[in-house]
Amino acid sequence: MLLKLVWNKIWHKRLSSFLCILLMGIGVAIISLVANLSKQLEGNFSKSISGIDMVVGAKGSPLQLILSSVFHIDAPTGNIPLSEVNNLKRNRLVKTLIPLSFGDNYRGYRIVGSELSLLKHYQAELNEGILFKDDLEVVLGSYTAKVLDLKIGDSFESSHGLDSEGETHEEKAYTVVGVLKPTNTVLDKLILSNLESIWHIHEHEGETHEHEDHEVTAALVKFRSPMGLMTIPRMVNENTSMQAALPSIEVNRLFQLFGTGIEIMKYLAYLIVIISGISVFISLFNSLKDQKNEKALMLTLGASRTKVFTQLLLEGLLLSFIGYFLGILLSKLALFSISKLLSETNFTEINIWQFGAVEIYLLAMALLIGIVSAALPALGIYKVNISETLSRE
Amino acid sequence: MAILQTKNLQHSYTKGIDFVYPDLHCNANQQLLILGESGKGKSTLLHLLGLILPIQQGSVSINGIETSQLNPSKAAAFRANNVGVIFQQHQFVKSLSVLDNILLANYYAKRSLDKNKVNQTADRLEISDLLHKKVYELSGGEMQRIGIARALQNEPKLLLADEPTSNLDDVNCERVYQLLADTAAEQKAALVIVTHDQRLKNKIANQIHL
After folding, report:
1. Nearest one of A168, A189, A208, A73 to A124, comparing CA atoms
2. Any CB–CB contact under 8 A between B92 and chain A?
């Protein structure tokens, strides 16, 4: 009977109930969405840059350099001479150096020329086939293989540039020799070959280059000790034609850019949640005022004031709980569509069904707001004068 | 056996209006008519008898129990189980069906919900068809009968009716009175009607004028 009373009341004034639920839902959805997104983005970003202390590339924007060569989402800053990269590699503070050469794509998926150390860095394993060894042999990331529907033995011609509209290199075709297992890193959405393949493809554009004239796009560097971080970036920037960018600093900068927006969104969402609380308050306050007779009737029929109070409290609680539930549902739905959207790009993977502390914290917040905004007007029940209320015309 | 017995009952409001009531007495299966014009303290008396107002002075004994000493929560429980109040204005929980409104009397008296009893009373009052309607779909007459059904739901020993006939024409006045008298008699309850309606004068011999 208690639930029936509460539920029927909510249904009876469904418009105002709907407003309470909707406001709570939207607030919870935004907070949960923003928290989830920023957490997962941050997680994915830090995972992507782990093990990379420094990136060298052509001079330009350091952020662009990081985005293009670590995350593969921006255009490269240009090319750098292999000789300079090799000089750097010989520095005793450098532990590993992975050269990258890219600028071509196949149907929008980047072809990255590198060494097998790149695969080792991302702990990639072959799902089938073999690793690239000779020129024009490629290994596909798991996602690329699935989307492009390429199998071992298939061949394709690459196009110039990073979008699929570029002119194709018609004379020389790549052959797929292997497919990687999913790594949950950027590798999944790349096409990988050796460095020579990339040079080979472009040789027709000029005369044959001397080996030392070869260029690469960027190189991922890991230092032996923190000493490297202290001296080498500066050395690179001052003494070479290359620039050094530190992924940790650039990613931080990126998050600071996002951060303000995310903060504003969060405050907005909290505001909406508070408004939802206010609307529960107003709804219950009005119902207590307009339906004083009903409350007096309940008391006359033998209900204790605490019982009627509990009824009202439960109403607020139920409203905010439904709102919370709706909010989580909305947030998951939004995450789902965002992850669909992002899976088209190299950006990042999003785990939709990850429930974390945020959800629990939000539930506590929703229920607290429900209780407080219901309790304040519901306390009025302790002041209702039954006799006076019943005899009022 | 006396179901209702009052002695030296008085009530004063802070505004300085004092009501002094004559002693009342009503047995089981008996009827008592309390007549009075507006401003004579009819509603106050009804609320005192229904334990809705705390008793300041004098005593009210219902079904052999002295009620003036009961604390508010005991008084509420006692009222729920022993006194059926039929309100002048129709008081219902609008969001509930007619059936649930009648069952509320069981619920708030902490009794088990007795649908059989509802069906019995509904047959008797000819409201069986209305049980699953919403309260706001009903006419005034229907509401009154449902109010009576609710007052009877816990089989009270004392039935208090507040102006049950004052808004009705002669035919319906007669009908409602008969309904109250019959149902009270069926349950061997004492029926106390508080009204200014002079038409009931000839129906109930046991009368008190305020």
Report:
1. A189
2. yes
Token pair recorded at residue B206: 């046991």
Could you tell me if A293 lies within 8 Å of chain B, comparing CB atoms? Answer: yes
Contact A11 B95 (CB under 8 A): yes
Name every chain B residue with its beta carbon within 8 A of the beta carbon of A9. Answer: 95
pLDDT band per the 50, 70, 90 thresholds, residue B169: confident
Residue B85 at interface with chain A, using a CB cutoff of 8 Å: yes
Cβ atoms of A57 and A77 within 8 Å: the answer is yes
Whether B129 and A324 have beta carbons less than 8 Å apart is answered as: no
Residue whose pair of structure tokens reads 């007007």 in the numeric block: A377
- The confidence score (pLDDT) of residue A191 equals 92
Asked if A177 contacts A138 with a C-beta cutoff of 8 angstroms, the reply is yes
Question: In A238-253, which positions are buried (b, 16+ CB within 10 angstroms) versus exposed (e)?
Answer: eebebbbbbbbebbee
Query: Are A387 and B85 spatial neighbours (Cβ–Cβ below 8 Å)?
Result: no
Nearest to A1 by CA among A287, A298, A297, A282: A298
Instruction: State the Cα angle at B103 between B95 and B66, rounded to 5°.
Output: 120
> Any residues with CB less than 8 A from the CB of A265 and at least 6 apart, and which?
A30, A34
Residue with tokens 């129990």: B65
**What are the angstrom distances between the C-alpha of B133 and each of A12, A104, A146, B128?**
14, 73, 60, 10
| pLDDT tens by residue, A64-123 | 999 999 988 888 888 999 888 999 999 889 999 999 998 888 888 899 999 999 999 988
Q: How far apart are the first and last CA of chain A?
A: 30
**Rounded to an integer, what distance in angstroms lies between the CA atom of residue B86 and that of residue B159?**
8
Q: Which of A12, A300, A391 sits opposite B95 (nearest CB)?
A: A12
Sequence-separated (6 or more) residues with CB below 8 Å from residue A257 = none
Q: How far is CA B147 from CA A149, A295, B120, B160, B192, in A?
A: 75, 16, 15, 12, 15
Question: Can you tell me the distance from the alpha carbon of B62 to that of B73, in angstroms, rounded to the nearest whole number?
Answer: 17
pLDDT at B145: 87
What is the CA angle A306-A309-A310, rounded to 5?
A: 85
For residues A24 and A319, is the Cβ–Cβ distance under 8 A? yes
Q: From the CA of B108, how many Å to the nearest CA of chain A?
A: 5
ipTM of the complex: 0.90
Question: In which residue are the tokens 């006939």 written?
Answer: B165
Rounded to 10 degrees, what is the CA torsion of A31, A33, A39, A44? -170
pTM of the model as a whole = 0.76
What is the number of other CB atoms lying within 10 angstroms of the CB of residue B139?
Answer: 9
- Residue spans of chain A under pLDDT 70: 163-166, 169-170, 203-212, 343-352, 393
- Asked if A294 and B96 come within 8 Å (Cβ–Cβ), the reply is no
pLDDT at A164 (0 to 100): 67
B15 close to A (CB below 8 A): no
CA B182 to CA A152: how far, in whole Å? 95
> For residue B74, what are its two tokens?
């005991």
